[in-house]
């Protein structure tokens, strides 16, 4: 995304057509944590220092990363791994301004929370399915039961932004799916045809019609959502 932004003539200060379409902004609250192995009294003393007080900053984004819950390791009675399912609002809660998550960096451990300031015309969501360790790449198969229309993100905005952002409802227009193992899987993409309101699945050179209900059962990896520009703007989604 950053390379494409530069190729379109954009810089850190100069916008491009890419940033005009996909760029939003967020508020980040960050607080440094004492080392977990320290005695309780030392931790309490450190938490009083300025270095360990919560700081607030603002940052732009071209996509939002959504973290999946850890997949269970237990199997059912047929010795098949149980694939969990989660509502989309469970993973979107990362941006409600209250949900805290610990991040480990070379500078130390930090507790962070996020809240959105500005929503873009087109919102890209990246569902974090792959994690790397020192030995291999793991894939999380959790299914996100997302609706494909009428997703309102107002509650993830700051109070000030809720006043200024008049249009906060989105409809899905593209869905990238990863099937199979992390190292040798395949990608499919679901695309909405705006003229007819029908959904199509693309894989290599094959293009087939797909029911909207089947899209929500896929292992979504990257999604593109289009913002409604007014409350009466409803994209024609056949079969929904």
UniProtKB/TrEMBL annotation:
One of its GO terms (molecular function) is cysteine-type deubiquitinase activity. It catalyses: Thiol-dependent hydrolysis of ester, thioester, amide, peptide and isopeptide bonds formed by the C-terminal Gly of ubiquitin (a 76-residue protein attached to proteins as an intracellular targeting signal). Its EC number is 3.4.19.12. Coiled coil: none annotated. It comes from the Eukaryota. The keyword Hydrolase applies. One of its GO terms (biological process) is protein deubiquitination. PROSITE patterns: USP_3. Keywords: Hydrolase. This is ubiquitinyl hydrolase 1. It holds the Pfam family UCH. InterPro entries: Papain-like_cys_pep_sf, Peptidase_C19_UCH, Ub_carboxyl-term_hydrolase, USP. Residues 1-228 form the USP domain.
């Amino acid at each position: 995304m950053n390379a494409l932004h530069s190729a379109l003539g954009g810089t850190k200060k100069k916008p491009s057509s890419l940033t005009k379409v996909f760029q939003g902004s967020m508020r980040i609250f960050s607080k440094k944590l004492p080392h977990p192995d320290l005695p309780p009294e030392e931790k309490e003393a450190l938490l009083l220092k300025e270095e360990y007080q919560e700081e607030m900053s603002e940052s732009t984004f071209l996509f939002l990363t959504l973290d999946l819950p850890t997949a269970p390791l237990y199997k059912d009675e047929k010795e098949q791994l149980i694939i969990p399912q989660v509502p989309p609002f469970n993973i979107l809660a990362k941006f409600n301004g209250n949900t805290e998550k610990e991040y480990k960096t070379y500078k130390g451990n930090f507790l962070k929370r996020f809240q959105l300031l500005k929503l873009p015309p087109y919102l890209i969501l990246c569902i974090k399915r792959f994690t790397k360790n020192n030995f291999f790449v793991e894939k999380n198969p959790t299914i996100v039961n997302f609706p494909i229309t009428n997703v309102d993100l107002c509650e993830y905005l700051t109070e000030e932004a809720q006043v200024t952002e008049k249009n906060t409802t989105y409809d899905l227009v593209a869905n990238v799916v990863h099937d199979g193992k992390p190292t040798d899987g395949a990608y499919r993409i679901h695309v909405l045809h705006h003229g007819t309101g029908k959904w199509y699945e693309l894989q290599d050179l094959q293009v087939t019609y797909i029911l909207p209900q089947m899209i929500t059962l896929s292992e979504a990896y990257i999604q593109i959502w289009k913002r409604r520009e007014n409350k009466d703007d409803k994209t024609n989604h056949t079969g929904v």
